[in-house]
Amino acid sequence: MFRNSHTRMTALSDGVFAIVLTIMILNITPPKVINWSKIEQLITELSVYFISFGVVAQYWIFHQELLSHLKRPPTKFLILNMYYLCLVCLTPFATTLLSDDLFSRFNTIFFAAIILSVDFVQFILFRLAIGIWQDRGITPNLHDLEEYRSTIVMFILSILYVLTAILFPPALLIIIFAGFFIRSALSRYIRRRAEQKETSSKS
Amino acid sequence: MFRNSHTRMTALSDGVFAIVLTIMILNITPPKVINWSKIEQLITELSVYFISFGVVAQYWIFHQELLSHLKRPPTKFLILNMYYLCLVCLTPFATTLLSDDLFSRFNTIFFAAIILSVDFVQFILFRLAIGIWQDRGITPNLHDLEEYRSTIVMFILSILYVLTAILFPPALLIIIFAGFFIRSALSRYIRRRAEQKETSSKS
Amino acid sequence: MFRNSHTRMTALSDGVFAIVLTIMILNITPPKVINWSKIEQLITELSVYFISFGVVAQYWIFHQELLSHLKRPPTKFLILNMYYLCLVCLTPFATTLLSDDLFSRFNTIFFAAIILSVDFVQFILFRLAIGIWQDRGITPNLHDLEEYRSTIVMFILSILYVLTAILFPPALLIIIFAGFFIRSALSRYIRRRAEQKETSSKS
Amino acid sequence: MFRNSHTRMTALSDGVFAIVLTIMILNITPPKVINWSKIEQLITELSVYFISFGVVAQYWIFHQELLSHLKRPPTKFLILNMYYLCLVCLTPFATTLLSDDLFSRFNTIFFAAIILSVDFVQFILFRLAIGIWQDRGITPNLHDLEEYRSTIVMFILSILYVLTAILFPPALLIIIFAGFFIRSALSRYIRRRAEQKETSSKS
């Protein structure tokens, strides 16, 4: 009767994501007096906010796909999902740190390290989900494998972010912004190629 | 097996809306000492809060109608919804900015620009939803078209807000407050006229 | 296709309630140094927190009963529910204000006025829900009428709170605390009497 | 028609858990200047955060199992669940207090007392749930009894935490961290033994 609940795992995750997405803006204090230096600072803070929002939004899009068909999740999956959420919760903190000083090596490394950790646990979660399906006799389809490959691409990109943060901190945000498009372009490319394969194999 | 989830898109959106509606009050610091100037300030801040709450509540009412029948949303819809939520998240920030100085041109333009952006993305979302239905062979009914037209009315009204903020900042809140009733009166009028048409066409 | 969603109305309401219940504790700043005056202040703040939590928790218990069977809510119900949530959102603010000074007439009246407003809108919501049912041909049962009567009792009690806040501010919290038990005792009494009636009318 | 809703009880609980898990990080202010003493402080605060996250995550895992099959919860269960949530809401506050001074007797006792209270109410909730099932003619299975026993183990461990906080405050976090593994190892052990029993009784 006491059983793991798929509904509640998704509800808790959505709650955490909703708060993380929203509180990042809370850390920006509205300027009391308006002058150019304040507006410049506001633009920087809003840019960091938009990029962080994009990063977390991307996590959510993967996360909602991940859990969509995982009824009766085993306890170890629930626990790993908690580790994942714990790391996602750190992103607003890392965002504020980055907002404070975009050029500090410590702050950029901290930010990149959080992204690396989330991407790593995300990859493990996808691996585990596919493993659970296979145990239950379900073979992943082409789309599933693409999504799984995407999480590997994200993990590799995040290693690149950490290296950028170590070697040339000021470039981090630009690399993340670029990486965002690279990944989505890459996954779109993989998707199309797979669709072509599927069509050609059918005919 | 990895699939976009309608349930989770609505859950995340409701989470974000719930937080946005609630944190707007957090930015009002309760006065430590009570005197007339403090009470005056409190009344101003509460008025801005009520109007902002009304604006976001209206967004939510449209948003819940928008998603009510969009099972298996395509990824581009999910991403556009994220842009929408990102802009909605900016409203508490814009509200605090406006609360600080109701007569500042910068603050009022910022507030009006956020409303304009949200209204624009909302309009695109409704357009996209109708497009997705038509691709799936569903023709929108009269009520759907009215709601769609309402989002156009809202978008046009928000252009008016930006103009007000540029030309005569102090009038912004009053115009928004009035616009709120104008839109709901207008859409009620359209609804009734459409119902009359439907009745007359049936008979 | 664009239709009001019962699921989303409850999801948004639960989100707002969850945040309101949680942020009330955020306003208590943990003491940096521990001494008797600090501990005394902490006990006061925690007492106010517990009572406010009780008040909002009671609202939630009524609210979840209210919406449990109201599929396809009309737009006017959704809008009234928004007014209700807007007022509920003000409770953490009123709680902080009360925490700051338990004996200030302004602060206690503000707190009592918020409770009065919520209780009033809650009563209107219950009235409206029963009206909607009757329009759809459903007659409320004994339990429904008791709950409806309970909201009237709550509204009358809240008038008493406002009077207390005006006449003798320091007694407000004690009266609310007492009123909490009075109402639950009263409704338990009404419930039992109704059950006895039902049993005797059946036999 | 007005009826207690299982869906809403879980939705509210998940909302509260999501916020509690997320706001614990909000209380850590990102250092403005980076030096060794700041990094040391940051590591301490993050360690306390991770342990608190673990404690609350564990509560959630038990809570989602608890409610998974309790359709139409009686009002007394809803009220007890509210007491539970009220205490869970206090954990971020206790965490901040502990973060401020890991060696203060007052702060550690406060933290341990909150854990003790949550564990106690959790135990009562599990007891009540089993009681409600039995009233409805459902006998708890082996797994249910193990989970119930786990809540007793957690309660006993939390008494140990309070004693540690009184006798030797600096050891509290280590004991909690250890207790976390002890409990999960113990429950895994009980689970396996029960499975062996079940297998042997079947053959």
Automatic annotation (TrEMBL), chains A, B, C, D:
Major location (coarse): membrane
The reaction(s) this protein catalyses: K(+)(in) = K(+)(out)
Annotated localization: Membrane
Residues spanning the membrane: 12-30, 42-62, 82-98, 110-132, 152-182
Keywords, alphabetical: Ion channel, Ion transport, Membrane, Potassium, Potassium channel, Potassium transport, Transmembrane, Transmembrane helix, Transport
Bilayer topology annotation: Multi-pass membrane protein
InterPro entries: TMEM175-like
Family as reported in the entry's similarity comment: Belongs to the TMEM175 family.
Statement: the UniProt record of this protein carries the keyword Transport: yes
Native species: Agrilactobacillus yilanensis
Name of the protein in question: TMEM175 family protein
